[in-house]
Design a protein that fits this description.
By secondary structure, the protein is of the alpha+beta class. It has 6 helices and 15 strands. The strands form 4 sheets. Strands 1, 2, 3, 4, 7, 8, 12 and 15 form an 8-stranded antiparallel β-sheet that branches. Strands 11-10-13 form a 3-stranded antiparallel β-sheet, with no helix packed on it. Strands 5-6 form a two-stranded antiparallel ribbon. A hairpin with a 5-residue loop joins strand 10 and strand 11.
Length: 239
């Protein structure tokens, strides 16, 4: 069952089925699907996993958005720092990642996704964009091999530090699992969704506890994976 504006006011989470997001993409963005899909296979392995896991591949870049404009400016630096309270596995350490590849960084697809997300945030919190905003973009692949699970959220139930985050599902191949789950302030489950279609999307606030179930390789495959984009919005000072 889709979650609406009323639900984000109550629970801090809202959903957008693929059809809603696709309808907002221009033809040029849709034509870039193939090249963006290929770029997931070139992500760099995340070597900063608190559990020593080798199953996460990621790239990360940031943009600067000035008040009253939709023009994105590239920012230097691609590091994140989360509190241990929010992320007990990987928090408390400054983590730096390889940036997005140029063909993704400059793609119309990414710009259209960011603009869609921005408009959804404005509907929820128009005051956020009265000040400069930093937009962070994570491109992530979780891999499972043989009997080894891939963990989209190895830290378990956690929160993100940013004001708003969008999780855009991209693909699941040769694997099952990876169900998105949201919880209330007492960490009681309130919502779950096994996203199936490309760009099935979830919007959640920084106060929202959430997780995703592990992915497991299909018996007839030696490897499987799940790909997503994470796009977040947070207040910033001018660079």
């Amino acid at each position: 069952m889709p979650l609406t504006d009323r639900d984000i006011s109550r629970f801090g989470v809202r959903t957008f089925p693929s059809s809603v997001v696709l309808a907002e993409l221009c033809p040029e963005a849709l034509h870039e699907f193939h090249q963006v899909a290929e770029s997931f296979s070139r992500l760099a392995r995340d070597r900063q996993m608190g559990d020593g896991g080798r199953y996460r591949y990621r790239r990360y870049s940031r943009f600067f958005l000035e008040p009253g404009t939709t023009t994105l400016k590239s920012l230097v630096g691609n590091s994140i720092l989360q509190d241990l309270e929010d992320n007990p596995l990987n928090g408390g350490v400054l983590r730096t990642f390889e940036p997005l590849e140029k063909e993704v960084y400059e793609s119309r697809l990414l710009r259209d996704l960011i603009d869609f997300d921005r408009r959804m945030v404005v509907a929820r919190d128009p005051g956020l964009f009265q000040e400069p905003v930093v937009v962070g973009v994570h491109q992530v692949r979780i891999v499972t091999e043989g009997r080894s699970q891939g963990k989209p959220t190895p830290e378990g139930i956690h929160r993100d530090a940013e004001r708003f985050t969008f999780q855009h599902f991209w693909a699941r191949v040769g694997a099952s699992g990876g169900e998105f789950r949201a919880y209330d302030s007492q960490k009681t489950p309130i919502f779950s969704w096994l996203q199936q279609d490309r760009l099935d999307s979830v919007m959640f606030e920084g106060t929202t506890w959430h997780s995703a179930s592990p992915i497991i390789c299909h018996e007839d495959r030696s490897q499987g994976y799940r790909d997503i984009f994470l796009i977040d919005f947070d207040p910033a000072t001018a660079p």
